[in-house]
Structure to design on (462 residues):
């Protein structure tokens, strides 16, 4: 992931990161408020090894080395029952020597004869009293062990009395809060990365292109009002969504360098991804550009074109394919444009057989000879085989994917299904793209485009 990917991830999952960061802070502050304060008192003793008679330089070096070795041994003795047991009795502590040992730390700095004792306790006075008592008792134990013949060869000198601590060692509200914030932030970023790894939905143009294996020819912004005004090219020709469909029209013309795209199947991987809206608005944009266009509703399972175009859809494609009516009797010119619509007709029991029939092949060839463009709204690729049957009969297929809804694996599967029947996929359209700022998802936009041609304002029926 590059920097832009991380920025997109942060913007997409900012609430997760913010929530976990605040949770970390809250837990840290809660733990701090409930924790029992601990006070640490420190004392230091020095191990002295005496030499006999006049001490030479070598004797002094030897004595220093011996004192250091003794100090290392006494570090372990300081936390034994022999030292701590009498301390517990002397101070009347409500604990055991082994439990007290957990609150005692004894260390000896490297190459020194010093022993540093740290004692943690719930009160500052208690910490100092225990540290003093351990220091005295350790000195007594050393004397018992080392000076059995009363020569006093080894002794311990207290160089620092146990101090009275100024502040508790724990909890530390500021440090704990900072640590909580940091841990919460780390967890939040981790959760965001995990969500991104597990979330395989198409989120951007590059993702749609990678999954479909075809360039994204247009990105259409999300419109929450699409049910009320599905034909944005007609209803608001200066809106950015209308401009997106005109961009799609232009890019389709450029894609014709590999062969003319006169007949086009519009499909998607699954339901609800915007294929019908794309087919209808693309047909309008092509007609607005001066071409003669026929829009065919070949979704014989869930037809929607007639409803979107405000036309009669009871008779149409299925009736033509079974020979019940003539094509000219059911095609419907739309408005004052050069657009003609062929509705689906009645929903048949055998859609795949009808769409894969010789009659469908002949119908597409006839339409292609009469119109500059044939736009076919087909069912989704993955649930049924209809689109895979239609796509090879046309000049190309247009895959529609919805931002944040279409799974990348499903989109790739749709492309593979079309490749298996040797259909030409000319491009991808990314729909429902969220917009940013004060016009987020709205029906208007600060960017509007002037057009120099008339747009039909209503549909008519024959």
């Amino acid at each position: 992931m590059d920097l832009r990917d991380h920025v997109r991830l942060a913007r997409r999952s900012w609430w997760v990161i913010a929530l976990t960061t605040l949770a970390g802070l809250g837990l840290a502050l809660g733990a701090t408020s409930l924790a029992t304060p601990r006070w640490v008192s420190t004392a230091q003793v020095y191990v002295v090894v005496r030499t006999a008679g006049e001490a030479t330089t070598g004797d002094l070096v030897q004595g220093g080395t011996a004192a250091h070795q003794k100090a290392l041994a006494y570090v372990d003795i300081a936390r034994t029952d022999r030292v701590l047991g009498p301390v517990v009795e002397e101070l009347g502590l409500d604990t055991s020597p082994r439990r007290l040992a957990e609150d005692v730390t004894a260390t000896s700095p490297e190459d020194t004869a010093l022993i540093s004792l740290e004692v943690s306790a719930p009160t500052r006075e208690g910490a100092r009293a225990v540290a003093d008592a351990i220091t005295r008792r350790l000195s007594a134990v050393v004397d018992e062990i080392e000076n059995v013949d009363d020569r006093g060869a080894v002794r311990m000198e207290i160089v620092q009395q146990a101090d009275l601590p100024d502040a508790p060692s724990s909890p530390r509200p500021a440090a704990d809060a900072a640590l909580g914030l940091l841990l919460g932030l780390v967890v939040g970023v981790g959760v965001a990365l995990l969500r991104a790894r597990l979330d395989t939905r198409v989120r951007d143009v590059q993702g749609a292109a990678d999954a479909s294996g075809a360039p994204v020819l247009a990105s259409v912004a999300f419109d929450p009002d699409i049910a009320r005004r599905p034909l944005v090219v007609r209803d608001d020709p200066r809106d950015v969504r209308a401009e997106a469909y005109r961009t799609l029209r232009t890019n389709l013309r450029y894609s014709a360098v590999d062969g003319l795209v006169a007949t086009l199947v519009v499909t998607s991987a699954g339901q609800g991804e915007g294929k019908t809206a794309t087919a209808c608005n693309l047909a309008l944009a092509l007609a607005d550009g001066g071409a003669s266009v026929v829009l065919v509703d070949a979704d014989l399972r869930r037809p929607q074109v007639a409803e979107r175009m405000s036309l009669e859809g009871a008779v149409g494609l299925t009736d033509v394919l079974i020979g019940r009516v003539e094509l000219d009797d059911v095609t419907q010119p739309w408005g004052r444009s050069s657009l003609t619509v062929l509705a689906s007709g009645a929903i048949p029991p055998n859609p795949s057989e009808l769409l894969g029939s010789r009659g469908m092949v002949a119908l597409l060839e006839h339409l292609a000879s009469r119109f500059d463009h044939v736009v076919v709204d087909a069912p989704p690729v993955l649930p049924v085989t209809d689109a895979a049957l239609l796509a090879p009969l046309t000049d190309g297929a247009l895959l529609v994917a919805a931002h944040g809804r279409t799974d990348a694996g499903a989109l790739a599967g749709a492309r593979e299904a079309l490749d298996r029947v040797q259909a030409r996929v000319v491009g991808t359209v990314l729909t429902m793209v969220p917009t940013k700022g004060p016009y987020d998802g709205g029906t208007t936009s600060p960017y509007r485009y002037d057009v120099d041609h008339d747009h039909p304002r209503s549909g008519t029926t024959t």
Observations:
- The CA atoms of residues 19 and 323 lie 63 Å apart.
- The chain has three domains: 3-35+171-198, 39-160, 205-439.
- Residues 437-462 have pLDDT under 50 and may be disordered.
